[in-house]
Amino acid sequence: MLYTGQRLLCVLLLLLLPATLRAQTKLTPQQYQQDFDYFWTTVNENYCYFDKKQTDWAKVRTYYGAQLPGISTKAQFTRLLENALNELYDNHASLSTNLPDSRRLLPSGTDVWAQYQQGKPVVVAVRAGYGAKRSGLRPGMELVAVNDVPIAQAATPLLGHCLKTPDDAAREVALNQALAGTHNTIRKLTVKSQGRQLELYPDKPTSQLENIRYAGLLESRKLGSAGYIKINNSLGDNRLIPAFDSTLNALAATSGLVLDLRETPGGGNSTVARAIMGRFITQEQSYQRHEFAAEEREFGIKRSTLELVAPRRQPYARPLVVLVSRWTGSMAEGITIGFDAMHRATIMGTEMARLNGAIESFRLPNAGFGFNIPTERLYRVDGLPRENFVPAERVDPAAQAGGDATLDKAVEYLKTAAKP
Fold it and tell me: Which ranges of 47-195 would DSSP assign to H, the alpha helix?
C-alpha cells in the first residue's frame, strides 16, 4: 500500500518523465478516432499529387476507419497509418516513427532499385558502398525472390487496397518496398544472371542500412587538375555550409570541379542548397518554381512563386559537373535542377529519386508522432516537374560494375571543358 507521501512522490516522478515516455500512455478509442480523422483530413486538404494517383482517398477513410475499433495500442495504430499512407504510393510521404518490422523508407533505406521491364522485375541501380553491391548484385539482373518468396507474391500485398486501378508507378513502389525489406529482417535476394540463379545476402554479416555512418559531412580530393566534392547525405545540416565553403576555397585553383550528389537520399533544406549554389554564380538567378495546390483547390486561384539564389563571396567560375543517381533525393534534386536551369553545370548520371514536391510535417494531436506529405509542387524554372528531370549526360548503370564510370566520364569531360 502506498501512503499519501508516497503517492505524491509517484505523481511528481511521473510528471518529471520525458514527454516521449509520458506519451506512451494508452489512448482511448475516441483519441484514436480523433487522430485518424485529423490524419485523413489533413492529407485530403493538403496533399498535392492526387491528380496523378489512382488512389481513392475517400475509400481510404472507410476502409481503414473500419479497422479502428480493433486498435488498442500505438503500435497497431502506427501500422494502420503506415498502410493508409502507403495508399498514396509516394516515397516522399512518411510517418515520423516506425516499428521494428516497418518497411524501410525509399530511397534512403534501401540499396537497390528495380523496375519492371517487359514484365520482368529487373535491377536498374545499386547503391555504391552498400551491402547489395558488396554481395554481387548488379544492374541488369532479373529478380526471382526475396527471402525465398517469389517476387510477385512478395510485392502484391504491398499494393494499396484503395486503388482504382494499380498503375505502373504503384507496382514499382511495391516492388522496391519488397526489395528494401523491413528493419528487423535479413534479406536474401534470389536473382538470375547470365543463365545462372544466384542467392545473395546484402545484409550479412550486418545490416549496413540500419546503421549508416559517414566519415564526415562531405569528402574531397583532387583528381588530377580537377577537384572533387562528395556530399554525404548532409544537406539538412547547416554545419555543411562552412564545411563546404572551406573545402571549395581549398580547391579554388583547380581546373574544374565534380560535385557528387549520389549519396543524398535524405533531403535537406533550401538554406544549405542556396548556400552551395550561391558559390557558383555571380548574379541573382531563379532556380526553382513552386506551386501551392491547397490554395488553388480551396479558392480556385492558382498561386506560384519563383525561388531565387543569390551569389556569395569567392564564386567558383571554372566548369562544374554534378553527379546524380537514384539516391539523389529531394533537396539534392532541387540543387540539380537549379544548376541546370541556371546553365551553370553539366549534369551526369541516371534518373534521380523522383521524389514529389516539397514536404510539410504535421503532428497527430494525441499519439504524439507526426507524418510528412508533399504539399507544394516543384518545377524547374521552365515548368518541367522536378520529378521528371533526367540528366542530359546519361550513364548506363550497368557500366558501373567494375568501377565508377560516371565519375570517370566527368573527369574526362572536365579535361576538355577546361581547355582554352
Answer: 57-65, 74-86, 131-134, 151-155, 168-180
In which band, very low, low, confident or very high, does the pLDDT at 24 lie, cut at 50, 70 and 90? low
- List CB contacts of 250: < 8 A, sequence separation 6 or more: 220
For residues 281 and 344, the answer to whether their CB atoms sit within 8 Å is: yes
- Does some domain include residue 384? no
Provide the CATH number for the domain around residue 176: 2.30.42.10
Per-residue model confidence (pLDDT) at position 397: 80
Rounded to whole angstroms, the Cα distance separating 244 from 346 reads 20
Angle between helices 74-86 and 57-65 in degrees, nearest 10:
160
* CA-to-CA dists, residue 390 to 3, 268, 384, angstroms: 70, 20, 11
174 plus 289 within the same structural domain: no
Q: What residues does 225 pair with on adjacent strands?
A: none
Are 120 and 268 contained in the same domain?
Answer: no
Torsions phi, psi for 107 (to 5 deg): -95, -5
Please calculate the CA angle 118-161-26 and round it to the nearest 5 degrees. Answer: 135
Q: Return d(Cα 80, Cα 78) in angstroms, integer.
A: 5
Residue 149: domain span: 112-205
- Quick check: 75 pLDDT over 60? yes
Instruction: Name residues whose C-beta falls within 8 Å of residue 297's C-beta, 6 or more positions apart in sequence.
Output: 45
Under DSSP, is residue 299 helix (H, G, I), strand (E, B) or coil? helix
Are 85 and 371 spatial neighbours (Cβ–Cβ below 8 Å)? Answer: yes
Residue 342 placed within a domain: yes
Cα–Cα dist 372/93, whole Å: 5
State whether 195 and 301 are in the same domain: no
User: Dmax of the chain from CA atoms?
Assistant: 89
- Alpha-carbon distance 225 to 257, whole Å? 9
CA-nearest of 262, 295, 238, 288 to 133 is 262
Q: Say if residue 275 is in the same domain as residue 234.
A: yes
Q: What is the pTM of this model?
A: 0.91
Tens digit of pLDDT for each residue in 119-159? 999 999 999 999 999 999 999 999 999 999 999 999 999 99
